[in-house]
Amino acid sequence: MSDNIQAAGGGSDVSSEYERQVVPDQARMGFKSFLGMYAGEHTAGTELMIGPLFVLAGVAAFDVVVGLLIGNALAVLSWLLLTAPIATRVRLTLYYHIERIAGRYTVVLYNLANGLAFCFLAGAMITVSATAVGVWFGFPLPTLADLTPNSIGWVLSVLGVGGVITLVAAYGYRFVSWFANIAAPWMVLIFLGFGIVSLKWFVDATGAEIGSATELWTLAETAIWTGVRVPGQPDFTLWHVIFFAWFANMAMHVGMSDLSVLRFARKSWYSIASAAGMYVGHFMAWIAASMLFAFQMYDAGLTTDSAMIAAAEAGRIPNPLPGPLADQALGVAGLICVIIAGWTTANPTIYRAGLAFQAIIPNVSRFKVTLGTGLLTTFVAMFPGVAMQLLGFVALYGLLLMPIGAVIVIDYWVLPKLGLNSFYAEGIDRKFTYPVLSTWLITLAICLGLVEYAEIEIFFVALPGWFIAALLFIGLSYLAQREDSTQSQSIGRVSNSNSAQVGAMHTSGKE
């Protein structure tokens, strides 16, 4: 997402310009730049997979509609109240911000984890685009049960799509960023078309008369989102939908990745523009995509638990593949939308992953690193099981980066109030301090332990995990700074300097 600022900013590259300095006044941007960016980023390839996966998870009509309304509101508030205030006061990239708190070596580990996560996410998007190519060329597409490539045609399709996306990311990201912003309004209309066409299918198949909101809701409850789950899939309730919608972009808001984006905003309230992405992409597009697949389930007679169990045992569950669904709904326009949606998401994601890896090996050019990243991502895309398990992966990805977000919030707002130093690694001129890394690893271990041994679903551990990370970081920061207090004279000078610096940021950056 951060890379789309490039187009809005007249060709400035966030990752190289002002990478290690405060964004100056003349480079700051207005509200419209963020409105288009968030809408374009979140109406993309992932929506075509997540919507059908909701149906497989047995969401009921009330759960999906109300859950998405609440969960997306919480996501917007997270950007508004957590990320933006720090971004518009400190105005540093995420990576430099972490480096000042934790030291250079911790940032290297963070980049490695971030880059690998981006590769898997981009791989799922290449998978999405390849399903549309498969419809055109008629080779066998993966099924819900396929975890590995199922045909030579599939492998060649993924290689072709992945190769093009990789080359464009390496050579011409500026054009792709511009193209994504141009394509976004058209893709929004196509997603809306998916919803309208699938609603007509349901009306024709059921003979329902839609003369009021009550009749529409009755159709939604009885035919579209029936609450019948496919065996072996997650069992989604209202709470699952709320937490998934809230934390689908946890890495960006709670995890603070969008510090790199919102540091360009003139005002912190501009982050309310994230609502365009949440309610166009993560509400309308998810619902429209889920309706496409829900009709396939309805048409196959899979509206009761017994019918679903029998179909699962016989291997007759329809495949939630975006390509065939879009083709059936809107033909060539639908297929083009699937390809572009996957492309516009995978391309900047590969670009970001390449930047993360290039920061680890700075002596290798970004071009070469991006090519290698694209090859890794394309290899991941050959395994359709990644896209089929996208709900769980998105939750795991957010969980992986969540503790660092807690560290940033506590370091900026809380530590100075406790008499501790912010940006401690920079203050004592160290490339490694243990509080951040220990907080990150211990929090992840606790959260994954709760999933594995306490049988708490992964969708629910991030919220308590944030508070665990916050408390850990406070305690470990106290211990680390007390241990270093023997260097009292040096630390005293650093403390005074840091306190003045942080105080200035808290006052001069207020809006």
Summarize the structure in words.
The radius of gyration is 23 Å and the shape is globular. It is built from 21 helices and no strands. Residues 1-17 and 507-511 have low confidence and may be disordered. Helix 19 runs antiparallel to helix 20 (462-483). It has 511 residues and is mostly helical. The protein has a single domain, classed as Hydantoin permease, CATH 1.10.4160.
SSE run = HHHHHHHHHHHHHHHHHHHHH
CATH architecture: Orthogonal Bundle
Largest sheet, strands/sense/barrel:
none
Structural class: mainly alpha
The total beta strand count reads 0
Outline type = globular
Uncertain spans: 1-17, 507-511
CATH topology: Hydantoin permease
In short:
The chain has 511 residues and is mostly helical. The protein contains 21 helices and no strands. The radius of gyration is 23 Å and the shape is globular.
